[in-house]
Amino acid sequence: MFVPILLFVLGLVLLIKGGDWFVDGATGIAHRFHIPELLIGATVVSVGTTLPEVMVSATSAVSGHGEIAYGNAIGSIICNTALIAAIIMAIRPAKVDKKAFLLPVLFFFGAAAFYVGVAVTTGYFSRWVGVILLAVFAAYMALLVREALKAPNQRAEVDEPHEQREFGKDVLLLVMGAVLIAIGARLLVDNGTLIAQALGVPESVIALTFVALGTSLPELVTAITSLVKGHGALSLGNIIGANLFNLVLVSGVSVVLSPFAIPAGKMVGGVNASLAVDIPVMFLVMGLMTIPALVKGRLSRWQGVALLGIYAAFCVFQFVG
Question: Is the model's pTM score more than 0.85?
């Protein structure tokens, strides 16, 4: 047990340092090209912090553990929203750029409707479903790149060699941060899962809670680092983008590599708990976070408190129900 605990701590340290570098590089690039922080957070940062989910879910699907790939995607969305975003809102509620916020929100709910429609009607995610999800991811990225290119070029005149050197440093920080995040998350999830299994925690619960929380730690570290550095918009954009990527990129890659059925777990009123509880909670927490923000143009502390309460109840249900 000593070695897994030691590697678990090492993974946490790598995550923290990787998150620090990743935020510095992402914000540097955003400022250099005058890209809104919410936009860079919803693309580059989100892809980087979603890498652990991609690796864990793809590996799980290929090795025949579709329930982990499925539970990790849904559980990570709930964790990102009701724990990580909730902490941000409870500590430092901020204004929202509704225009930049709208696109990832619309894409998320559109992808979620398709995802849930497949789950309810067929109960099976075939390879063509994965192809469609990846096509949605490609369309989303293309739209964001187009919006970024349409932004007016208002860069100040600076010395070119200096600019090139600084840009290279930002890119290096971004890449190295992503690498440390991926390695750290893998160490933390693998060894954390060993610790959880040693304590007798069921695999289905591990997928929706422990693995989801472990692979969401990059988002948590990035969010906290962003808040400390005063980049709240970056952390919010990262979470919205990461939630979308959990549906279209993480699930898409997993399903294309190895199609799987919805895991047959516990039942609630004669209905699979995933359809009766997990998916409705996913929609509830995303709606609670995004709808008031789109209407009022800002986040509120009460949203964070409410989301934390929902996440606590969700975890109690998983372990006690």
Answer: no
